[in-house]
């Protein structure tokens, strides 16, 4: 069977329960559907900001610093865990409303981390809810290049299918692909329009190796979409 027709439940990190959510929430059923579910934007993960630089214009930020303390607030469904994070220029509260026990045991005080997320002001303090956190040992731990961001629904997020989780699932999909994805356009059309191969376009739309390859991928995929729209118009007009 063509790998593109493989049901998404067989992708590592998905499984039957998550597959059902992806089926119902965003109509993804196969690996082919997943690969055609394109990012809505890209974030430059090579930039590290200082906490004192944060302002309302920043959609996402990446920080490097240490957790100085944890605090637990509320009870039951209103319970939240707050980690006080600093880089020496100020403080940010890292906040979790779910998975509190897991977080408490995973991250350590006074160890350096790379934190990535969306900043928001609450009671005159910057906070980042459910941030992505990775250990920092040396400069090679700072991510390079552009990172894809995926639209997710509230139900997906409630089942830990946020943008970062979807990116990991995409990584697992490409690990399953052992040979180039089949071309969808004829060689003559691709050559005439100077298009990159379909496999390269799909790979770089999800994991851009450079800004120029991302542009080439976007051009290839947009060209293909318009090409088939025009073919349909000609077919129904004749």
3D architecture notes:
With about 240 residues, the protein is an alpha+beta fold. The chain has 8 helices and 9 strands. It has helices spanning about 15-25, 30-35, 100-105, 155-160, 165-175, 185-195, 200-205, 210-235, and strands spanning about 40-45, 60-75, 80-85, 90-95, 110-115, 120, 125-130, 130-135, 145-150. A 7-stranded mixed sheet has the order 6-7-4-3-2-5-8. It has a two-stranded antiparallel ribbon with strand order 1-9. A hairpin with a 4-residue loop joins strand 3 and strand 4 (about 90-95). Helix 7 (about 200-205) packs across helix 8 (about 210-235). The chain is elongated, with a radius of gyration of 21 Å. It starts with 14 loop residues before the first helix and ends with a helix.
Sum up the structure in keywords:
alpha+beta; 8 helices; two-stranded antiparallel sheet; seven-stranded mixed beta sheet
Question: Nutshell version of this structure?
Answer:
The protein is an alpha+beta fold and 238 residues long. Helices cover 36% and strands 22% of the residues. The chain has helices at 15-26, 31-35, 100-106, 154-158, 163-176, 187-193, 198-206, 211-237, and strands spanning 41-44, 61-73, 80-86, 91-96, 112-117, 119-122, 125-129, 132-135, 146-149.
SSE layout:
Elements: H1 15-26, H2 31-35, E1 41-44, E2 61-73, E3 80-86, E4 91-96, H3 100-106, E5 112-117, E6 119-122, E7 125-129, E8 132-135, E9 146-149, H4 154-158, H5 163-176, H6 187-193, H7 198-206, H8 211-237
Parallel strand pairs: 4-7
Antiparallel strand pairs: 1-9, 2-3, 2-5, 3-4, 5-8, 6-7
Helix pairs in contact: 7-8
């Amino acid at each position: 069977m063509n790998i593109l027709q493989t049901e998404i439940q067989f992708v590592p990190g998905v499984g039957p329960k998550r597959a059902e959510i992806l089926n119902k929430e965003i109509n993804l059923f196969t690996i082919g559907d997943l690969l055609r579910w394109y990012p809505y934007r890209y974030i430059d993960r090579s930039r590290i900001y200082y906490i004192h630089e944060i302002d309302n214009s920043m959609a996402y930020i990446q920080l490097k610093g240490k957790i100085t303390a944890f605090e637990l607030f509320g009870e039951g469904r209103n319970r939240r865990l707050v980690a006080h994070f600093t880089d020496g220029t100020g403080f940010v509260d890292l906040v979790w409303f779910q998975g509190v026990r897991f977080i408490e045991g995973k991250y350590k005080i006074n160890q350096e981390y790379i934190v990535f997320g969306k900043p928001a002001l609450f009671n005159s303090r910057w906070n980042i809810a459910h941030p992505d956190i990775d250990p920092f040992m040396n400069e090679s731990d700072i991510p390079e290049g552009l990172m894809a961001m995926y639209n997710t629904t509230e139900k997906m997020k409630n089942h830990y299918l946020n943008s970062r989780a979807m990116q990991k699932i995409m990584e697992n999909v490409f690990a399953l692909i052992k040979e180039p994805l089949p071309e969808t356009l004829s060689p003559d059309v691709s050559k005439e329009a100077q298009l990159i191969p379909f496999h390269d376009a799909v790979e770089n739309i999800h994991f851009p190796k450079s800004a120029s390859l991302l542009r080439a991928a976007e051009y290839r995929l947009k060209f293909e979409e318009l090409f088939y729209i025009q073919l349909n118009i000609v077919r129904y007009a004749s």
